[in-house]
């Protein structure tokens, strides 16, 4: 499910980036066309030609402003999906940190005491049971604390 969602987000992001680049091209063409026709309006001596050229310039300016609006909208969509992905990654990192926080003290305790308590012929059962109880209490305490923090 996670890989599929990640692929869906990549496809959506790729599509929005392509649309954004297309809009940038349309905006550039509209701006350049508007500039060219705007210069032509200043050269024209005929009143009728001047009105149609001014109308074309206005249309190019409208296309440019629409392309700008769509580009800004798509940039917002891209930022939304990036924020959503970053949030999921942050949650995953927090969970891994909790797992490390819960297992690290137990691992340290078992690595030091495990070599000295469990010996083939001379296992010290009272000490082993005490250490196991301490490990269970540490785990329970750390898990309870993590739950109170809202990490689980």
From TrEMBL:
Cellular compartment(s): Membrane
Q: Which residues cross the membrane?
A: 96-119, 125-146
| Protein's membrane topology | Multi-pass membrane protein
Q: Which domain of life is it from?
A: Bacteria
A Pfam family per the record: CorA
Transmembrane recorded as keyword: yes
For this UniProt record, give its keywords in alphabetical order, as a comma-separated list: Membrane, Transmembrane, Transmembrane helix
Its chief place of residence is membrane
Which protein are we looking at?
Answer: Uncharacterized protein
| Natural source organism | Dactylosporangium maewongense
């Amino acid at each position: 499910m996670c890989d599929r969602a990640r692929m869906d987000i990549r496809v959506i992001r790729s599509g929005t980036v392509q649309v954004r680049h297309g809009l940038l091209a349309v905006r550039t063409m509209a701006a350049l066309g508007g500039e060219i026709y705007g210069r032509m309006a200043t050269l024209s001596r005929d009143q009728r030609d001047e009105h149609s050229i001014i109308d074309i310039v206005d249309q190019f300016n409208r296309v440019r402003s629409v392309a700008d609006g769509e580009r800004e909208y798509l940039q917002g969509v891209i930022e939304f999906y990036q924020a959503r992905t970053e949030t999921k990654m942050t949650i995953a990192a927090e969970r891994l940190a909790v797992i490390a926080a819960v297992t690290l003290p137990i691992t340290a305790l078992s690595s030091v005491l495990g070599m000295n308590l469990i010996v083939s012929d001379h296992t010290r059962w009272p000490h082993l049971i005490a250490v196991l109880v301490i490990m269970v209490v540490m785990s329970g305490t750390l898990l309870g604390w993590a739950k109170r923090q809202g990490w689980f």
